[in-house]
Amino acid sequence: MLGMDIAEVARRAGLPASTLRFYEEKGLIASIGRRGLRRLFDSDVLPRLALIALGQRAGFSLEEIAGMFGADGRPAIDRVQLAAKADELDRTIRKLAAMRDGLRHAAVCPAPSHMECPTFRKMLRIAGAHRPQTAPAGRKQSGLKRIGR
Amino acid sequence: MLGMDIAEVARRAGLPASTLRFYEEKGLIASIGRRGLRRLFDSDVLPRLALIALGQRAGFSLEEIAGMFGADGRPAIDRVQLAAKADELDRTIRKLAAMRDGLRHAAVCPAPSHMECPTFRKMLRIAGAHRPQTAPAGRKQSGLKRIGR
DNA sequence: GCTTGACCTCAAGTGAACTTCAAGTGGCAG
DNA sequence: CTGCCACTTGAAGTTCACTTGAGGTCAAGC
Fold first, then answer.
1. How far is CA B89 from CA A147, B50, B55, B62, in A?
2. B96 pLDDT exceeds 90?
3. Would you call A58 an interface residue with chain B, using a CB distance cutoff of 8 Å?
4. Coil, helix or strand at residue B107
5. A4-66 has which fold?
6. Phi then psi for B59, rounded to 5 degrees?
7. Torsion angles phi and psi, residue B5, rounded to 5
8. Which of A91, A66, A146 has the alpha carbon at shortest distance from B100?
9. Phi/psi at A88 (nearest 5 deg)?
């Protein structure tokens, strides 16, 4: 098929065309040429978009994701970075699980107010604990964002 | 002690004073008065801030969190909403766990490129699966954000 | 009495990730 | 050839959660 146009990529990836153009501008994807004004994309853009979506879910920023593609255009992901992200993800999962259990308890808790429930207060302690004030200027952006649209 | 000033609240909560002023403006917290120009806060602002932090971690927006406080100023959180959020959190956790396992595998995978690894490709499928294009205009903001700073 | 420093207000700026808009272009049907 | 319409562009706008900056006030210390 020698190249899909942006509309087809958009349809197949479930993303608006504007997002694809935005990604191209950011260097996350590349078109293989034009037909008239229209971008043509190789079909390998689809797994690449899947990888981008994956990276986003895993908490990488678009900029970080862009850095994961080597010069050859194929993913060249640093294995150390991957392991670090996995560890970070693991810590996040633990916190979220504690949170989920707390929420679930609060949803059925017989205490008249959530504040009187020991489980709820415990959850507050977990949530409030150890916030390292490492934000000197302009959002640190190392953590997870916008997981699970 | 009849009221801490903003600096003390900031210190105890580990938040900058600007954030506290911002939260007050948004109706998330309230000062109990002034000493001169300076805001005074009751000590109950601290658990309240913990609850706000918790809500943020659990994926609620500040606006949603503001809606969780009843007229009496005490948390009046809808139990149905809590359960729904717990379920959402649970789905997110499952995805993240799959992701973590995939990342962890990729970090040690012997395949020359990640793309040639079946586990990695499987992870891509998980990540790329079923994106409901429910984003008509201007950020939906219902998902998790900024978990685990 | 003057300086200092911590607070005050209000407006504007930041950053990520997009979306929206106005104006222009290209290919194809009629 | 003309119209149409889906596409193109670059610039500007949007949202969220804050932060920063300018200019002001006030209580305490020297």
1. 10, 19, 12, 17
2. no
3. yes
4. helix
5. Multidrug-efflux Transporter Regulator; Chain: A; Domain 2 (1.10.1660)
6. 105, 10
7. -85, 175
8. A91
9. -60, -45
What token pair was written down for A142? 């190392």
Distance B111 CA to C4 C1' (A): 65
> How many contacts does A have with B, using Cβ atoms within 8 A?
179
Sequence-ordered list of residues with C-beta below 8 angstroms from that of A32, at least 6 positions apart, any chain: A3, A40, A41, A42
Q: What are phi and psi of B35, to 5 degrees?
A: -120, 100
Where in chain A are the domains?
Answer: 4-66, 87-128
* % chain B with pLDDT above 90: 28
Q: Which residue has the higher pLDDT, A102 or A73?
A: A102
- CB contacts of A88 in chain B (<8 Å) are 148
Enumerate the H helices of chain A as residue ranges. 6-13, 17-25, 45-58, 62-66, 79-108, 118-128
Residue type, B4: M
pLDDT for B137 equals 25
Q: Residue A138 phi/psi, 5° resolution?
A: 55, 75
Which residues of B in 41-100 have their CB below 7 Å from strand D's atoms?
Answer: 56, 61-63
Angstrom CA distances, A79 to A37, A83, A84, B117, stand at 39, 6, 9, 14
Structure tokens at A32: 């293989």
